[in-house]
Amino acid sequence: MSKKNKSQEHYFSSAPKSDECFGIIRASLRGRNFEFMTSASVFSKKKVDLGTHVLVDAMVLPQKGSVLDIGCGYGVVGITAATSNSKLHVVMTDVNMRAVRLAKQNLQTNHIKNAEVRHGDLYEPVLGLIFDCVLSNPPVSAGMDVVKAIIEGAPQMMVPGGSFQMVIRSKIGAKILPETFCNAFGNCEVLARESGYRVLMGKLSV
Fold first, then answer.
1. What are the helix (H) ranges across the chain?
2. Least CB-packed of 29, 79, 137, 166 within 10 Å?
3. What contacts 29, CB < 8 A, 6 or more positions away?
4. What would you report as the CA-atom Rg of the chain, rounded to the nearest whole angstrom?
5. 73 CB contacts (<8 Å, ≥6 apart)?
6. 143, part of any domain
7. Domain of 107?
């Protein structure tokens, strides 16, 4: 791949062609220490990004049941959720096959038994399943149409009373996305505001 093409390759590419360049990130999240393997052409390969930190700190998890981490990258959100409560079953999905391989490796590295990783676009890998909670740090670089598709598709994947939680940069989504949440769920709550990010939550009516 030429230098130009490498620079144009995004982390939401299904099959990245850039050379793999592995690294290790160590992070403390919700009072626990984790180690994550990363590589080129995955999101935030050098450190756990601030938006993910804000989502992980703010996310409200069910006491039991199933959780979906859509667009999981190398697995930070889903792995932290799984570690927080052994009664949860966490499904992590990503369109980027390299990210999927890394997330699977990171499940093993962090000794996670109550989670799995699936490859595919948006909700396609989990069609037929329903979740108590859906979490998303969306691929904003893919465009707002993709972000909105994640929000609008969530209610069909959730149990009554389930919650959908998404982190977004305030300057990008503060005005647009609450309306999208309200159209999808009939409500929108701000769980957290920190360092230019917001965590928005929509709850499905019972």
1. 3-8, 50-58, 76-84, 97-109, 144-153, 170-173, 177-185
2. 29
3. 48, 53, 56, 57, 76, 80
4. 16
5. 11, 42, 43, 44, 94, 96, 99, 102, 103, 137
6. yes
7. 49-203
* Residue 68: count of CB within 10 angstroms of its CB: 29
Is residue 3 domain-resident? Answer: no
* Residues 72/103, Cβ–Cβ less than 8 Å: yes
DSSP result, 160-173: EEEEEEEEEEHHHH
pTM of the model: 0.88
Tokens of 101: 């391989």
Phi, psi of 25 (to 5 degrees): -115, 135
Q: Decide if 173 is inside a domain.
A: yes
Residues 6+ apart with CB under 8 A from 10: 41, 139, 141, 142
206/161 Cα distance (integer angstroms): 5
> pLDDT by residue (tens digit) across 69-108?
999 999 999 999 999 999 999 999 999 898 899 999 999 9
Q: Could you tell me which of 119, 118, 120, 123 has the C-alpha nearest to residue 136?
A: 123
Tokens encoding 95? 């369109």
Total count of domains within the chain: 1
Residue 149 Cα distances to 63, 103, 122, 145, 156, angstroms: 27, 23, 8, 6, 12
- Residue 5 included in any domain: no
